[in-house]
User: What shape does this take?
Amino acid sequence: MTAPFKFEVEGPGGFRAVLRHTAFRNIWFAQLAAQLADKFLLFSLIILAYQISGGSTPVAVTLLVYTVPAVIFAPPAGVIADRLDRKQIMLWCNLGRAVAVALIPVAALVPQLRGDFVHLLVITFVFSAVGQLFGPAEAAVIPTILPRSALITANSMALLTMVLTLVVGGALAPIVSRIDLYAPYWLAAVLLVIGATFIFASDIPGLERTTEPPVAASRNRFHRMLIDLKEGIDALRASRGLMLAFAQVSIAVLVLFMLFALAPAYVSHVIGIAPQDSYVILGPATGGAILSAVLLGQFVRNLDKSKLLFGSLIANGLTLLALAAVPQAMTQLPDLRVHARITGAAFSLLLGIEFGAIMIPAITYLMESTSDEIRGRIFALLYMVINGVTALPVLAAAALSDTIGTAHVIGGLGVVLIIGGLAIFTAGRRASAPRPA
Assistant: This one.
């Protein structure tokens, strides 16, 4: 009996081959436009919130309002993705967000609202809440328009899109804001309309309709939604492979978020440079994630994904240990101190590569191993965990960093990942071992 989380790659692919599928190409362009609009909004909100309020606390509140809907509305969004037409969901989600983001510059035309902070929070909340519908619907659609062999390449492209739009949005939003404070919002609205146009042009298969008995059809819709959510949770708990892939994606995102949160303290206390130079760590990590997406999607698709997941998890732990210990040790030696920055950047590059090597195969497994009827709920639960549960460990790590030191926190996380990777590898070997008759 083979391990439940091991699956095969069926054939060659690559970016060019995947983009030959018209429906996927349109969805990918729509995702590119929508994510770029989302990042424009995120970084522009930081600038606008500070401009209106003149303080850092309102900026933090704005980011919190931007994040909260992902925890509240992700599970219902998964149910909707499994019950309604996914093409219509993605289409109206983009159009709805375009209207919401356009309300920010429109409201600025009203003198009473131009310096108001509350209306900005309301619009941000609405934008983020509507946006929760897009992710589960898109993740559920991709396996229905692509062959199984192309899924790892498709997920590599999705990761590539996420990283590139984060970099481009973060770089261009301040530049466009200098031209006009509200220009980024008009640009984001246009991008979302473009994304909706690509979705409209896509040939996306609809869900098979099932006829419910009259008693079931007359049930309270909220009660029906709770039952649907429970079905998704039960399906997740019933599969060892799904649980492992779920955990590995969450761990990968947690490590990346923690690296971003601790980067200023790390470069200041471990490497010994100014906190403003945190790009020394974040730049290579971003580049590593891009490199990993290119390598997995274009060149090394035929690797055994279960072994890749286990190996990447353990390698991630070892790299975190090295990132915590080696540059700090080098700063204690005058001859090596000058090389501490380069060494930290090299380990950060490895972390970015390992992030992609964990994230892409695990997402691919979730797509391959879930039925079309329940896939939206599985991914909605994943997004909820990523946005909600990972926030607490990141906050705890930041607090511990101030107490026991940044290097100790990063090294401790490395030890946890190594132990976890070995435990998962052992469990996989036991699950694949033949049982006596």
